[in-house]
């Protein structure tokens, strides 16, 4: 008996020691983010944009798995704002997630708010951005998560690493672009240029002197942390004469594979290894739009940066122009599909097999009819553009956040009657009747029981044409078990699901005129006492169209 007691006591000490050691290895980082108007010159013209600490892009946050971040945000700008930490699980910290009027009310001009959250079991590349209207166009930055002290990457030690942030630039305040679209009901104007780390690159006017340069020594391998911070656009990305080895996506490691070009959607991140195995010179890295929707206007510019080998400067004369990579055609669906199919988890993962909640959400554009012609109804056929899921166009509250209303049981802010399946079944990717083009506005939620195993089919529609719809699930990583073109077939398509090594993502796109299947466990409740989990799904690409929805005042 005495020996057993001693053994248990020793085991207890070991557990306590291990716990204390893990705490001492973790750090608490404190940051001050000041939202402020900043004059920035791009494309020969100076615009005043919202920035964090006067930086565009904003400051990179570098943490380790297990660290806690405490970020005080002070708003000296003229707009209400919140910040979202894109991809962070936010276990037990839903107040820190950031979507305006969803998890918090906005930080008003002159006000401040402190975000506090811990990185738990995540490594790789995420990012942060404003989550209120189109402030995200200029208020964003990288969130880099290193392994815990004493741990290492699952690949060889790297010589150096760089964040590569893809963005968009307008020759006017992006908030004015959004305001015009909301007034007219038409689609917003596309950007005037894409950017890499805030710079359009050599191919754009008044830009070559500020083109971003990434230095590399011949023979070394570097890590590029590629982040698509664009509001509305998927991208093809390549480096002239160099291959990339994909090793991570959305802060999850992947089975390594080599590619000449990658496709990355809005909100997604991709980690790639690049070996400098070419003759010392300068090589362009470039990104341009991937746009599968032939009916939508898009920015057709190409942004560039330079991969520069050290010691490649000529003894005399002007530097030769860098070599450009060969990028796919803007509508190369086959190339994009082939890339996505290669992204998998490194080994077998624990995919939910028994499903408790089987959800089916249709996603697409829509139109709000106007009773008479109006300058507020400049969409297709005297209408206003909108977007919907299961025929519901989400309407943000304006007097309280959904999370606060949920905690305080405040009535009238939201309802919990979001349909788990389409209210009316139809040929989703076929010739859809005009009678199905107008969604119903509402602030509707769907509640999940804590611990439930969820399968969600995201089905694109052909309303106003087919296209890819990027989707982000707040507070969760999910497994992408299947995807395909046309309408999802519940009888035959599940047999083709990857239940062995599907990729773990936080943002995914539906194929044009197709569907994607994801699975996850509802393990992130809004409070420790809850028996339910409230999840948030955000459409990355058509965020503006959701904002355009709702009631119409005609003049």
In short:
By secondary structure, the chain is mainly beta. The protein contains five helices and 32 strands.
Please name the defining characteristics of this protein.
5 helices; disordered C terminus; mainly beta; 6-stranded mixed beta sheet; 555 residues; globular
**Overall spatial form:** globular
Radius of gyration using CA atoms only: 24 Å
The level of helicity is 10-25%
Instruction: List unreliable stretches of 5+ residues.
Output: 1-22, 528-532, 539-555
Which strand order spans the largest sheet, edge to edge or round the barrel? 10-9-12-17-14-15
Percentage of β-strand residues? 35-45%
Judged by helices, strands and strand pairing, the structural class is: mainly beta
Q: Give the number of DSSP strands.
A: 32
Largest sheet: 6 strands, mixed
Number of helices: 5
Describe the fold and architecture.
- The chain has 555 residues and is mainly β.
- It is built from five helices and 32 strands.
- A six-stranded mixed sheet has the order 10-9-12-17-14-15, with no helix packed on it. Strands 21-20-25-30-27-28 form a six-stranded mixed sheet.
- The longest helix has 24 residues, at 2-25.
């Amino acid at each position: 008996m005495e020996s057993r007691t001693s053994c248990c006591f020793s085991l207890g000490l070991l557990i306590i020691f291990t716990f204390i050691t893990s705490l001492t290895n973790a750090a608490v980082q404190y940051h001050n983010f000041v939202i402020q108007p900043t004059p920035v010159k791009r494309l020969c013209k100076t615009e005043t944009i919202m920035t964090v600490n006067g930086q565009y892009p904003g400051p990179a946050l570098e943490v380790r798995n297990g660290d806690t971040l405490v970020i005080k945000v002070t708003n000296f700008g003229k707009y209400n704002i919140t910040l979202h930490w894109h991809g962070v699980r936010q276990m037990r910290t839903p107040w820190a997630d950031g979507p305006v009027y969803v998890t918090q009310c906005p930080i008003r001009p002159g006000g401040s708010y402190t975000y506090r959250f811990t990185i738990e079991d995540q490594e790789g590349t995420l990012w942060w951005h404003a989550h209120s209207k189109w402030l995200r166009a200029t208020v964003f930055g990288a969130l880099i998560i290193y392994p815990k002290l004493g741990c290492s990457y699952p690949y060889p030690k790297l010589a150096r690493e760089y964040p590569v942030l893809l963005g968009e630039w307008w020759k006017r305040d992006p908030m004015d672009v959004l305001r015009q679209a909301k007034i007219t009901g038409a689609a917003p104007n596309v950007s005037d240029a894409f950017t890499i780390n805030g710079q359009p690159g050599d191919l754009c006017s008044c830009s070559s002197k500020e083109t971003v340069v990434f230095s590399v020594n011949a023979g070394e391998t570097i890590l590029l942390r590629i982040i698509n911070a664009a509001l509305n656009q998927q991208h093809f990305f390549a480096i002239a004469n160099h291959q990339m080895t994909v090793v991570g996506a959305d802060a999850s490691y992947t089975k390594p594979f080599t590619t000449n070009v990658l496709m990355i959607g809005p909100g997604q991140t991709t980690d790639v290894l690049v070996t400098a195995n070419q003759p010392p010179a300068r090589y362009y890295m470039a990104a341009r739009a991937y746009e599968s929707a032939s009916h939508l206007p898009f920015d057709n510019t190409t942004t560039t940066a330079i991969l520069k080998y050290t010691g490649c400067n000529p003894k005399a004369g002007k530097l030769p122009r860098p070599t450009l990579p060969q990028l796919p055609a803007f509508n190369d669906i086959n190339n994009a599909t082939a890339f996505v199919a290669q992204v998998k988890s490194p080994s077998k993962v624990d995919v939910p097999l028994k499903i408790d909640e089987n959800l089916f959400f249709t996603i697409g554009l829509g139109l709000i009819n106007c009773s008479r012609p109006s300058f507020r109804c400049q969409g297709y056929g005297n209408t206003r553009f909108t977007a919907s899921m299961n025929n519901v166009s989400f309407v943000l509250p304006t007097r309280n956040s959904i999370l606060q209303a949920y905690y305080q049981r405040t009535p009238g802010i939201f309802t919990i009657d979001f349909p788990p399946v389409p209210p009316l079944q139809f040929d989703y990717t076929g010739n859809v009747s005009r009678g199905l083009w107008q969604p119903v506005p509402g602030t509707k939620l769907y509640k999940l029981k804590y611990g439930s195993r969820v399968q969600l089919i995201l089905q694109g529609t052909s309303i106003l044409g087919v296209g890819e719809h990027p989707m982000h699930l707040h507070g969760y990583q999910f497994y992408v078990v299947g995807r395909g073109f046309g309408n999802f077939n519940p009888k035959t398509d599940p047999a083709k699901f990857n239940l062995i090594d599907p990729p773990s993502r936080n943002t995914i796109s539906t194929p044009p005129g197709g569907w994607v299947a994801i699975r996850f466990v509802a393990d992130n409740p809004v409070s420790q006492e809850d028996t339910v989990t409230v999840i948030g799904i955000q459409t990355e690409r058509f965020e503006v169209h959701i904002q355009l929805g709702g009631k119409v005042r005609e003049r």
